[in-house]
Amino acid sequence: KQEVTQIPAALSVPEGENLVLNCSFTDSAIYNLQWFRQDPGKGLTSLLLIQSSQREQTSGRLNASLDKSSGRSTLYIAASQPGDSATYLCAEHSGGGADGLTFGKGTHLIIQP
Amino acid sequence: NAGVTQTPKFQVLKTGQSMTLQCAQDMNHEYMSWYRQDPGMGLRLIHYSVGAGITDQGEVPNGYNVSRSTTEDFPLRLLSAAPSQTSVYFCASSGVAGLEQFFGPGTRLTVL
Prior knowledge:
heterodimer; A: 6-stranded mixed sheet; 0% helix; globular; B: mainly beta; 4-stranded antiparallel sheet; 11 strands
């Protein structure tokens, strides 16, 4: 059974700081990896998808990297804002993607104004 | 596009009752799936479908049934609700298996 781990479980930083969220996975045959944002009581919003053949993806202030050899992905958030406060989830597709996503338990991020 | 929609948003059931959670998408996606989210457990896959008429089990399928008669709809049926099925249920879809997945807003279910 594949496992996805996210560290830290919670993080609080002052507004304006750059920060990195970590995700590690055990599947050496990862198909792709997806980062999500979840606000309290809401659904999941897709942030970035990294294919197994890619090393990174960028969207605005977000940059996600993928290192298959070490089983790690990072989500970099530049110039953090209070509106970035949410839980961030990473999830990996394996088995060609048909077997669905295996999720980490998330990092709860608080950006202090 | 409405994206992925789920109804109801909230539901309270008594043990032994049955119900159907509805999920629909208007993006002509072939792949649809159901997850449950529990505190401390994260999201876990219940069932998935790679296209109309094809379904398969995920990690936690017991107590749930699915069918996929159309591309747009993927209902999840609870046959005889149990307190252990108290959870938040999310439906997701993607163009085909393995592509970016889009999630619905969720259904919060409480079984008494």
